[in-house]
């Protein structure tokens, strides 16, 4: 059977995380509290503000927003990811789960104070999302796009983990979520000016968490692939090589692109 039989390249962003939702919810890193301080201080977002978290996934960033007393629309088109978020955030009355995509949220015109997209923007249709963001943001509203980006130079483990992804990723190079295209982001915010901030972040993982972190991505081999067990064994060996007292550390920088957005676009 050909290698293309197992390719994920033909899957849309809406469905390609379906098999990874459980691992994503348990093993992806959260985001540092510095991001919330940025929303408060640089964007002027007050407690009780309405936020649309676009591509909310399993609710990792939505949970931080809710804990900071923001009201949140969690916009997520993937049913498995959305179900994880609904279960995780069921105790937050200010969380409203919405089955919709970035390009058509279904929210009212000028109904939100801020839009966030955490490790999600690279999946959007940029032009359609830009129009939709301008439609739902209040005049003077803010938008923040952020990613947890691995620092491959931080340790030998991080470098070899990157090699593992390149070796077993079905379309890792094409997706390149780890390569944020700054010029495209600036065009997305135009004619407004985009600001950039970066904060350190890290994650401590036991062996189960390390394997779960690996399996949380959408571009690796599926269990039915003939090289799947080879990949898992390579990951186990990598963990064993670098673990200390049963744990390894992942190092990230959380990169944020933010700025005013709604006012100019809403006048279009």
TrEMBL record:
GO terms for molecular function: S-adenosylmethionine-dependent methyltransferase activity. Residues 53-145 form the Methyltransferase type domain. SUPFAM superfamilies: S-adenosyl-L-methionine-dependent methyltransferases (SSF53335). InterPro entries: Diverse_substrate_MTase (IPR051052), Methyltransf_11 (IPR013216), SAM-dependent_MTases_sf (IPR029063). One of its GO terms (biological process) is methylation. Belongs to the methyltransferase superfamily. This is Methyltransferase type 11. It comes from Candidatus Glomeribacter gigasporarum BEG34. The lineage of its organism: Bacteria, Pseudomonadati, Pseudomonadota, Betaproteobacteria, Burkholderiales.
């Amino acid at each position: 059977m050909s290698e293309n039989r197992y390719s994920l390249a033909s899957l849309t962003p809406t469905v390609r995380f379906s098999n990874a939702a459980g691992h994503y919810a348990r093993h992806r890193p959260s985001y540092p509290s510095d991001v919330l301080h940025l929303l408060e201080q640089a964007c002027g977002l007050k407690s009780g503000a309405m936020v649309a978290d676009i591509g909310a996934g399993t609710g990792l960033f939505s949970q931080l927003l809710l804990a900071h007393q923001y009201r949140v629309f969690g916009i997520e088109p993937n049913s498995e990811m959305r179900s994880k978020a609904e279960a995780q955030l069921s105790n937050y009355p200010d969380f409203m789960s919405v089955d919709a995509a970035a390009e058509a949220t279904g929210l009212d015109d000028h109904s939100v104070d801020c839009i966030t997209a955490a490790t999600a923007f690279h999946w959007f249709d940029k032009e359609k999302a830009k129009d939709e963001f301008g439609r739902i943001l209040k005049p003077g509203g803010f938008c923040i796009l952020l990613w947890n980006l691995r620092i491959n130079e931080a340790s030998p483990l991080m470098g070899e983990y990157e090699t593992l992804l390149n070796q077993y990723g079905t379309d890792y190079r094409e997706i390149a979520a780890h390569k944020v295209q700054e010029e495209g982001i600036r065009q997305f915010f135009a004619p407004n000016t985009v600001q950039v901030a970066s904060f350190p972040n890290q994650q401590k993982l036991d062996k189960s968490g390390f394997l779960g972190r690996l399996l949380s991505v959408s571009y690796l081999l599926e269990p039915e692939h003939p090289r799947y067990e080879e990949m898992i064994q390579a990951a186990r060996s990598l963990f064993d090589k670098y673990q200390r007292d049963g744990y390894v550390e992942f190092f990230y920088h959380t990169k944020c692109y933010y700025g005013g957005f709604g006012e100019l676009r809403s006048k279009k």
